Amino acid sequence: MTSTVLITGASRGIGAACAVLCAEQGWDVAVNYASRADAAEAVVESVRRFGRRAIAVQADVSRDDEVRAMFERVDRELGSLRGLVNNAGVVDVAQRVDEMTPERVRRMFEINVYGSFSCAREAVRRMSTRHGGGGGAIVNLSSVAARLGAPGQYVDYAAAKAAIDTFTVGLAKEVGAEGVRVNAVRPGITDTEIHASGGQPERAWQLAGLIPMQRPGRADEIAQAIAWLLSDAASYTSGALLDVGGGR
């Protein structure tokens, strides 16, 4: 039976790499994006080269109405949702906490935390045997920053990702008897476009010396961990926080 995975923030970086790898492994893929329709369509085309179905779905995950509409469209056009990757997230410019505005912190939590809650809620309503579903897997994107704190740079981001860790553990216990596995991947410093959005496009390589492996990760390396947690190979893994950070 064909199964569908919805990947949020999948027009670039880790999300895009995950979409292509999931297609290679037999999933149909819903590619969520916030604003880059052209980039999302390019990912859709890459998925289709593997003979899988794919659609690009615009939604700002911080808006609950858009999240609900996104899942309803996936139901109509792809159906059989068995996987969710809560990948959409943002960083901001490096700042100390005493320099941060309430608006910045609010945005950080609305996208990185509230968005993951909304998407997981909709996924559970479709996957859980309690709701008549056939089971499935949710993978949340956390960060090594959740345990390092990111002082002087992204304490708000680190705090949001720490919330994702707790959310992952709690939800895994809540729905474990209902056929739904919930895990998180915690990437370390990874060479993706997200650093440019925080004003530091070269940040990943500038910080390579902090990593025991002396290099940043690649998006496809993070995607491998996500795809494993989605797969039946991880059938007894739930509530796990998997660090993929080069030993950091």
Tally of structural domains: 1
Write down the overall geometry: globular
Give the number of DSSP strands: 7
Give the name of the CATH superfamily: NAD(P)-binding Rossmann-like Domain
Tell me the strand percentage band: 15-25%
Which regions have little confidence, pLDDT < 50, spanning 5+ residues? none
Radius of gyration using CA atoms only: 17 Å
Strand sequence of the main sheet, in spatial order? 3-2-1-4-5-6-7
Characterize the main sheet: 7 strands, parallel
**CATH architectural grouping:** 3-Layer(aba) Sandwich
Order of helices and strands: EHEHEHEHEHHEHHHE
Distance between the termini: 39 Å
Mean pLDDT: 94
User: What class, by secondary structure content?
Assistant: alpha/beta
Task: Give a topology summary.
Elements: E1 4-7, H1 13-24, E2 28-33, H2 37-48, E3 54-58, H3 64-77, E4 81-86, H4 102-127, E5 136-141, H5 145-148, H6 155-175, E6 180-187, H7 194-197, H8 203-206, H9 219-230, E7 241-244
Parallel strand pairs: 1-2, 1-4, 2-3, 4-5, 5-6, 6-7
Helix pairs in contact: 1-2, 1-9, 3-4, 4-6
Short description:
With 248 residues, the chain is of the alpha/beta class. The chain has helices spanning 13-24, 37-48, 64-77, 102-127, 145-148, 155-175, 194-197, 203-206, 219-230; strands spanning 4-7, 28-33, 54-58, 81-86, 136-141, 180-187, 241-244.
